[in-house]
Design goal:
The complex is a heterodimer of chains A (225) and B (650).
Chain A: H1 2-5, H2 17-37, H3 44-66, H4 74-103, H5 107-112, H6 126-134, H7 136-158, H8 164-187, H9 192-214
Chain B: H1 9-38, H2 48-54, E1 62-63, H3 64-67, H4 70-73, E2 82-83, E3 90-91, H5 93-98, E4 110-111, H6 116-124, H7 126-130, E5 135-140, E6 147-155, H8 157-160, E7 162-165, E8 173-176, H9 185-197, E9 199-201, H10 207-210, E10 226-228, H11 232-241, H12 249-273, E11 294-295, H13 297-306, E12 317-318, E13 330-331, E14 337-338, H14 340-350, H15 363-377, H16 383-386, H17 406-409, H18 413-425, H19 427-430, E15 432-434, E16 437-442, E17 454-456, H20 478-484, H21 489-492, H22 499-507, E18 538-540, H23 562-565, E19 574-578, E20 582-583, E21 588-589, E22 605-610, H24 627-632, H25 634-647
Parallel strand pairs in B: 4-8
Antiparallel strand pairs in B: 1-6, 2-3, 5-6, 7-8, 9-10, 11-12, 13-14, 15-16, 17-18, 19-22, 20-21
Helix pairs in contact in B: 2-15, 14-15, 18-25
Classes of the chains: A mainly alpha (225), B alpha+beta (650).
Chain lengths: 225, 650
């Protein structure tokens, strides 16, 4: 079975207009909504950061659910690649907002009042503030997951799609990103919305796996229609 | 394997349309974000004094272009001001009505003296020169650390914590850190709320439609026939009428967003707060129980935290002087918060700050800087700083005077007598000026064992004495407690048992979901330890430095003069408040005890302080002797007179 999960996709067909539409439109609307909807909050920077990661989660969910179907056809593979890329872009926007605005904007205050941020006087930086807030393992876990995700997206577009190693890397990234999302939403319970999004993500991914396990057709050599 | 199914022309068109539209939406959102981040950042002051007087502490409540036209649209609530020919400052009108301190030019002598940054600001900034003391101008939207293309106006610490002494006449000196005894903060914010709720007939109705139905009833107007008085159109028109420059596109959009949000919030809270009182009602204790020089901090907290009407909270606080806060480990009248940053954050919160804007972009920094100013730098004036020299005759020190007694050298023999009384009767609780250096206050608890303790105002005898906290002053008998306890409402207000924890969680990141519905998951610079915030159960024994500036006395400002507090005179049951003159003999405010038949809107004394309702009691603190004991003993009177003379030297 695992061999089948790692089976190469049938071909490398270019992205069609319809596929691009189905992925870009949700991406653009979700990110625009994240940016604009935050205007209704009391804290643009914080809520843009929060809404962007939620957008990233929603965009990544189809990709995470689609990975088991990669060898089912070019359509599945392309949709996976697109959702995976757009999810990553939203994630990077989230990181930029968090690093440069949410934390970056506080550095000046933290330099003067380091104790209030739990820092020592000579160790005040965006990095130290984030570590103080999130702990080093979480920060480095996030950085690692982001780097792996970035590499995975590049492999998705430019890598050798027949390579078993690449397939293994896809699954590794799948696990890393999925776990990162679930830890930050479900394990570190923050608020009902993000918790429910995490549960929703888990459900969608589980559904994908179940369908993949029990619904064997269509195989790569049969018609999708 | 099948070739990919061909996409029809229509489908392609739909796809391209969807892509283009969503792309444009995204591009628009990104442009907005980039624009917002390019808006000017607020300027930060270097000197803590400038921050205290003019720094933004997250209390923005109105866009400047709207504040400028309120007198045009609502002249009955915001009477037009006049511009001082020499200084360009606004004075009179609403500024006088609500008790803000008009600016008197960059060179006005102040106490303490304006440091170079503040003096420079008053020279260079037209806005700061024009608007009253303690107004701030920033490019923040209310409640947020978010940028705004339009300038918003808020109150700095000095908006509440500054006053003119001995009075507000031309000779009055501006004192930073004193409590504003005239400020009618509740009246001001009620009127501001009214500008958001008041409606008028829409244009185009016939005279018949808008005429009063009867002597008693107003016109018969349906909701559709009325509109808000404060609208984008009325603002624009008023700006034209006043020859003010029109707002640009971005300013107008921001003001429109603010206005619709403010209208909605005012409508929503009207259910909780009722309709605002009208101007003559605001002069009556029934509609404005707070009056000048005071606030109702826990009503605000009840509103902000629990969204409750708080109709049964009667905790009134005088706006206190905030000199030499370093001697107050626990601050507030009830000694409920430790350390300056917490107390200042809470002050800003009750004045309209939110967990978000208090965290952001230097607002926290300002609050900490201002708090540091009150702790490290700000010292109140002495009698001689305010009253012409010679008004306190000094006698040469007798040869037997202790050479280390530098305080004694400056005292008259009468005052030295009074000092002996003070040391015997008062110092144990309040501490005393350092005899070797009168600029310092002695708080050493080895010498002044009750200093910093809480005098319980909840009945301590309802609890087993072994359970009393260490920090309580220990009354021996219930009778003694009853004789000394002052009005309890500031401590026993409703929700007083749960507010400390709720305030603690408001800034603590372990509780990201706030009771207010706000969500803030980050480390907050104003966060405090749970042990540093408490309902103490009473009032704190604090220092009495610059005592003559602290009138009227007690936490609820219920006693106009020291002479009355010390029971040398009857404490008045009612007295008039507003712009009171200073009474140098009695040390405090000159306050007529009966109101005239009618009080006019622009009378300097306009508000009748009635000490009988809950929260206003002037009973208790009968040190050294009760009024009855005092009346019966000429010796007591002589001693207390001497004490009064001595207290003038603080």
């Amino acid at each position: 079975m695992s061999a089948e999960f790692l089976a190469p996709p049938p071909n490398r067909a270019p992205v069609t207009l319809v596929q691009f539409t189905w992925t870009f439109v949700p991406f653009a609307l979700l990110v625009a909504t994240a940016l604009i909807y935050a205007e209704l909050s009391q804290n643009l920077r914080l809520f843009r950061t929060i809404y962007l990661i939620r957008a990233s989660l929603v965009l990544s969910a189809p990709a995470l659910a689609l990975l088991p179907f990669l060898h089912h056809g070019a359509a599945a593979r392309n949709l996976w690649r697109l959702f995976w890329t757009f999810g990553l872009l939203a994630h990077l926007a989230h990181l930029a907002y968090a690093v440069f605005f949410v934390f970056g904007d506080q550095v000046d205050t933290a330099r003067i009042h380091s104790d209030l941020y739990g820092l020592s006087k000579d160790n005040v930086s965006i990095y130290s503030m984030i570590v103080e807030q999130q702990t080093a393992p979480v920060v480095w876990g996030n950085i690692a997951a982001t780097v792996v995700w970035l590499v995975d997206v590049l492999l998705g577009w430019f890598g050798n799609y027949e390579s078993r190693k690449v397939a293994i890397f896809h699954w590794f990234t799948w696990l890393a990103v999925l776990v990162a999302f679930l830890i930050s939403t479900v394990y570190f319970y923050k608020n009902p919305v993000s918790y429910n999004l995490g549960i929703g993500l888990a459900a969608v991914v589980a559904l994908g796996l179940v369908v993949r396990l029990f619904w064997r057709a269509p195989a790569s050599n049969t018609s999708a229609n | 394997m099948n070739p990919a199914p061909r996409t029809s022309g229509l489908a392609r068109l739909v796809c391209w349309l969807a892509i283009c539209l969503s792309f444009l939406t995204l591009a628009g959102a990104i442009t907005l974000a980039v624009y917002e981040h390019s808006l000017p950042k607020p300027t930060w002051f270097q000197s803590n004094q400038a921050v205290f007087v003019a720094g933004n502490i997250g209390t923005e409540f109105i866009p400047l272009p709207v504040l400028e036209v309120l007198p045009k649209i609502f002249p009955e609530r915001f009477p037009p001001t006049e511009e001082d020919k020499v200084t360009g400052a606004l004075k009179g009108g609403w500024i006088a009505r609500y008790g803000f301190l008009e600016r008197r030019g960059a060179d006005e002598p102040t106490f303490p003296r304006s440091e170079s940054e503040l003096a420079g600001l008053l020279k260079s900034s037209e806005l700061h020169r024009k608007f009253p003391v303690g107004f701030t101008f920033s490019n923040y939207r209310p409640f947020t650390p978010d940028p705004s293309p339009v300038t918003f106006v808020g109150l700095a610490c000095a908006g509440c914590h500054s006053n003119r002494m001995p009075n507000w006449g031309p000779g009055g000196k501006l004192i930073y850190g004193a409590g504003n005894t005239r400020l009618d903060l509740i009246g001001f914010f009620e009127s501001f709320r009214a500008t958001l709720l008041e409606k008028e007939p829409i244009p185009g109705l016939t005279a018949n439609q808008t005429k009063n139905y009867s002597l008693i009833e107003g016109p018969d107007l349906t909701p559709q026939q009325q509109q808000y008085r404060l609208t984008m159109a009325s603002i624009a028109q008023a700006r034209v009428d006043l020859k003010l420059p029109p707002m640009n596109f971005a300013e107008e959009k921001m003001v429109a967003v603010w206005l619709s949000g403010a209208h909605a919030a005012a409508e929503r809270t009207a259910v909780r707060d009722d309709l605002p009182a009208d101007m003559s009602q605001l002069m009556t204790p029934e509609y404005n129980p707070v009056g000048p020089g005071r606030t109702e901090p826990f009503v605000t907290l009840d509103h902000e935290m629990f969204d409750l009407p708080a109709k049964h909270n009667f905790g009134y606080s005088k706006i206190p002087a905030v000199f030499r806060e370093k001697y107050r480990e626990w601050a507030q009248f009830d000694g409920s918060v430790k350390f300056p940053r917490t107390r200042s954050g809470l002050a800003a919160m009750t004045a309209g700050g939110s967990v978000d804007n208090l965290s952001g972009l230097g607002v926290a920094r300002n609050i900490l800087a201002a708090a540091t100013y009150t702790v490290d730098d700000l010292v109140g004036p002495t009698w001689n700083d305010i009253f012409p020299p010679g008004s306190k005759p000094t006698t040469p020190s007798p040869s037997d005077l202790d050479p280390t007694d530098r305080e004694g050298i400056a005292l008259t023999s009468r005052q030295r007598e009074g000092r002996a009384v003070y040391r015997k009767q008062c110092a144990s609780c309040h501490g005393q000026p350092d005899p070797t250096d009168p600029a310092r206050w002695q708080t050493d608890t080895a010498k002044f064992p009750e200093f910093g303790k809480i005098v319980p105002t909840v009945d301590p005898f309802q609890f087993d004495t072994s359970k009393w906290p260490d920090y309580w002053y220990k009354f021996r008998t219930r009778d003694e407690w009853q004789k000394q306890t002052v009005d309890p409402e500031r401590v026993v207000f409703r929700d007083g048992s749960r507010i400390p924890f709720v305030l603690f969680t408001y800034f603590d990141r372990a509780y990201p979901q706030k009771i207010t519905g706000e969500y803030f998951p980050l480390q907050h610079p104003l966060a405090t330890d749970r042990q540093h915030i408490r309902n103490s159960g009473g009032y704190i024994n604090g220092p009495l430095d610059s005592l003559f500036v602290r009138a009227p006395y007690l936490h609820n400002a219920s006693i106009p003069t020291l002479e009355q507090l010390l029971n040398l005179q009857d404490r008045p049951a009612t007295f008039l408040r507003g712009l009171n003159d200073y009474d140098r003999d009695a040390v405090g405010l000159k306050a007529p005890t009966t109101a005239p038949e009618t009080i006019k809107l622009d009378d300097p004394l306009f508000w009748l302080f009635d000490t009988r309702p809950k929260g206003n009691h002037n009973t208790g603190h009968n040190y050294p002797w009760t009024r009855e004991e005092m009346k019966a003993s000429s010796d007591f009177q002589a001693q207390t007179r001497a004490l009064l003379e001595y207290l003038k030297t603080f």
